[in-house]
Amino acid sequence: MKIIGVIPARYQSSRFPGKPLADICGKPMIWWVYQQVCKVSELTEVYVATDDTRIKEVCESYGMNVVMTRNDHPDHIARIQEVSDKIAADLYVCINGDEPLISPQCISQAIPNNINEVFFSGAVRKLTDPVETIDPANIKVVISDTGRCLYISRTPVPFPKGTLLFSYHKYVGIECFSKTALNFFVNTPMGSLEKVEDIDHLRFLEHGKELNFTLVDSESISVDTPKDLEKVRTIIQQKEQR
Fold it and tell me: pTM value?
C-alpha cells in the first residue's frame, strides 16, 4: 500500500502572507513541518504542494520533495486532489503546513489500519481552554462514541443542557483522503451549510458521506498570526536548548 503525505503551502494568506517561509530559529516554517512528517513510518513519500515559485525554490534548496499546483484552487482539498492526479497512491494524508509542532505520533494515530475502507478520516483533540472553545477559528467536531462525525461547526456544539460531563473536540490539521473522496469533493457543488459555516468538510456531510475522526493527544499550535509564530518560536527555542 502506498500512503503519501502532502503538505499544502500557499504564499498568499490573507492573515499572514508568506507564512510557510516565516523564519523559526533559522529555518522556514515549512521545513519544520516537513521534518516532523518525514518521521512518520507509515508514509511512503512526503511532498509539499504549493502554487508559488518562492516556496518551491526554498523547498528544493533544503532537498524537500515539492509539487507545483495551480494557483486558482479555492481550498486545500482541491490542491490535494490535483496532487492525486499527478502522483498515484492508495491514501493521501494531508498535514497542515502551519503546524510546525505537529507530532509524528499524532499523524500515525490518524492513519486508519485498513486503508482499503477509508473514504475520509481525520483527527481531533480535546479542548480544555475556554478561550479556545469559543474561538470561531477553532473548528469544533461533534463525534459519536465510535468516532463517526455528526456535525462540524465554528460554534461550540452540542449545547450542554443535560450534563456538563462533556468535552468539546477541536479539528486537528491531519486528514486522510482516498482518491474517490478527493474526486467527489472537487466534482460536487458547495452546499448551504458549507457556505454558512465556511468549513470545507461539510460538503461531504451534506451529501451523505461518512466521515470518521480519531481522538489524538496533541498540543500542536496552528500558526495563523504573527503572535502565534512568536509562541511557536519560543517553544522550539526552549526545545533546542535542552
Answer: 0.91
Q: Are 6 and 81 in contact (CB under 8 A)?
A: no
Show the CA angle centred on residue 102, arms to residues 171 and 43, nearest 5°.
100
User: Does the structure show a pLDDT above 90 at 81?
Assistant: yes
Supply φ then ψ for residue 112, to 5 degrees.
Answer: -65, 155
Q: Which of 168, 171, 163 is nearest to 133 (CA)?
A: 168
Give the residue-averaged pLDDT of 51-74. Answer: 96
Q: What residues form DSSP beta bridges with 9?
A: 50
Residue 23 is placed in which grid cell? 523564519
Report how far Cα 42 is from the mean position of its chain's Cα atoms: 17
Average pLDDT over residues 92-100: 93
DSSP class per residue in 177-189: E-HHHHHHHHTS-
Cβ neighbors of 240 (< 8 A, separation 6 or more) are 25
